[in-house]
Amino acid sequence: MIKVLVCGASGRMGREVVKAVAREEGLTLVGAVDIRDIGKDAGELAGIGSIGVVIEDDLEEVLKRASPDVMVDFTTPASVKNNIRKAMENRVVPVVGTTGLKNEDIEDIKRWAEELGVGAFIAPNFSLGANLMMQVAKQIGKYFKAVEIIELHHDKKLDAPSGTAIRTAQLLSEGEVMPSLEEGQPSRGDTRWGIRIHSVRLPGLVAHQEIIFGGQGETLTIRHDAPSRECYMPGVITAIRKAVGLKEVIVGLDKLLGL
According to the model, what pLDDT value does residue 157 have? Predict the structure, then answer.
């Protein structure tokens, strides 16, 4: 039985993780942490009825008392790095879906893994479809050298561009994709690895991304839509199962799936 703690348990993604873990054979929820809804049953918040695990606000105390094998983190860019550090110090492997970590943050986490002997798994996106989209884009990028990314999310998302868009640009840059227009036009969006990224934040959206490639006399567009957060749960469960005993830092669900 794999013991799981969910950090950010009262948030949109956190509630989905609580629901998925509670229903999954071989997993058991031993802790739920958030700064909201303190004292409420995590299962009731997730809509599955009481499960006997209440929301608490002291991550350090829950890590020590519950001794989970894995901590799943869907919190905020401001708190995620500190949460990862606390988990690793308590010999708990973090599975991180919170985006907003910078390159230097990843390097710090890798250094902690070497020092503490505890790994971490970080995924900009846990959806199978989104990860396949990124891998397909990487292959297309070998032939179409001009590309731009449009990512669209709900208006409550804190970071922009999204972690998925940044990861896509990173993968495309490895294929030597060139920027479609000159730098220095901030009104057109952000630039990562020389690739334009346009972020849209509107109510009514959940998570969507288009990658548009341009060639001589033609364009090619690939798009992924996630109208429900349920699509992330198979990836989260896979990561939880593979994270137990992890000693290194792995970034990207594609690495776990062998894409």
Answer: 86
